[in-house]
Amino acid sequence: MISPTFGALAQGAIAKYLKQATGYEAAVLADTDPEDLHQMRVGLRRLRTALQVFEAGIDLPKAAREPKVAKIGRRLGQLRDLDVIGDTLRNQYLPRLPKGEQVALLAVIDHLAQARQRAYRDVKQLLTGKSYRTITQALRAWVQTPTYRPLGQCSAAAVVPDVVLPLMGDLWLHPGWWVGAQVVAHRPTIQTHLSLAAADSLIAEQGYLLHSLRKQIKRVRYQLRVVAPLYGDLLEADLERFSTMQDTLGALQDSAVLAQFIAQAHAEASHPMPTLRNLLAQSRHQSWQQWQIDQKHYLDAVVRQDLRLTLLQPGRQPRAVAPAALPVR
Fold first, then answer.
1. Mean of pLDDT over the chain
2. 20 to 30 Å CA-CA from 246: which of 206, 208, 257, 312?
3. Residue 61 in 3-state DSSP?
4. How many alpha carbons lie under 13 Å from residue 59 in its C-beta half-sphere?
């Protein structure tokens, strides 16, 4: 397989994700389906990732650089977070509560609706404003007539390993992997027999590490997705697993966010809604068990090394290895 240049890979990715993001502008402004906002935000995240991955090889105008795109994504993210919370409370929890708790939760949902109206007005002002138009026009102009730095003219296969391997190193070294794990006889050991109370305590104390790890996994997944065409289907299994881990750790975080939001929105809600508290706890414990499965997989040194070797050699078949079993306690 003949590798494209690093710059050509960049131009294709940026064009694709810019089209995806801006293609949802009108639908987001119409505000008839929350999925439109989600898809626009996904497009912006992927666009931002492409700008980060290819930064060393492309010469962008100041108005089109990654921090500008990131700012747009953050503002859309505030509205998206409210949509997710609202959908979860209405569809996942409200129908499962007794009548008294439903009344209390409906008051919280009403508070949420008011906050969403304010967030939507902010998004509407953003998407119809001059700053947003300047950014998108600058990116479209670059896509039509791209300019590259010297690395952009090099083979992508020669450059990409140096881009993605440091990112993988940051992921493997993240302390979040060790929440609920320890080293025994020089080997990682997963603490699978923690009581529910002990797991809750651990999540409360070190949940911030898991939240940080989730963000790092998301960055890695998006960046690997951008360069995946160079590797055929060799990254697909890891990309799928990273996606699952992101969802699992997100569910853990959502439980804490929902409890905090409810407490802020309705000062007395946490006391009269024991059923809701129990449901949140059940969801949290299910996510914790799934997290330990993925944690065990990626604490295996053989699994990590196999992915390193794959990333080091775009377009080549890695050696076949079977992950060794980790001890559990």
1. 90
2. 312
3. coil
4. 9
